[in-house]
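User: Can you write out an input/output pair for a complex, sequences first and structure second?

Assistant: Here is one pair. Inputs:
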Amino acid sequence: DTGVSQNPRHKITKRGQNVTFRCDPISEHNRLYWYRQTLGQGPEFLTYFQNEAQLEKSRLLSDRFSAERPKGSFSTLEIQRTEQGDSAMYLCASSRDGGYEAFFGQGTRLTVV
Amino acid sequence: QKEVEQNSGPLSVPEGAIASLNCTYSDRVSQSFFWYRQYSGKSPELIMSIYSNGDKEDGRFTAQLNKASQYVSLLIRDSQPSDSATYLCAVKGYSTLTFGKGTMLLVSP
């Protein structure tokens, strides 16, 4: 069990650029979640996948954000035309189906300058 | 809208004391309840899960669930300075996992 892996760990980008983050879940987990966390706040739900199907997206999620999980394995989260307000920690978690525990990766810290 | 409420703290306790952290949730169909610990600049780490009413103990940690009152709590016995962190309550229904804003715990030597 290698745990949930996220890359890169840190990303600094200029406003207006596109960025893409990758998440590799625990191998037998078919649910994958993306969250965003800013200082002093709890993780804010962005979207989740069951296998390759994206089943739910937050209504707060701008159309500049898109996520994929091809073949139900790793997932990518892309942010287009980044804004300074996108600066945050982006967290990925995975779990088995149902009410089981979700485990987080190390996160990707995005700084938009 | 699903909500999970926690007192933001900080909750300050002396070393060796019992720390009590509380959480309420709004969605009655919630089925699973979790406590995560998060150190500054790090990602959340799962420390407890609880699925049915009552108490669940794991080492120095005890989680308590009361579904009728929509209330979850975490007790940390013999608190250590290394327990100083933010504790996140999370609630899972049929799909998403919803977090509270977290309670900061400070354990002084």
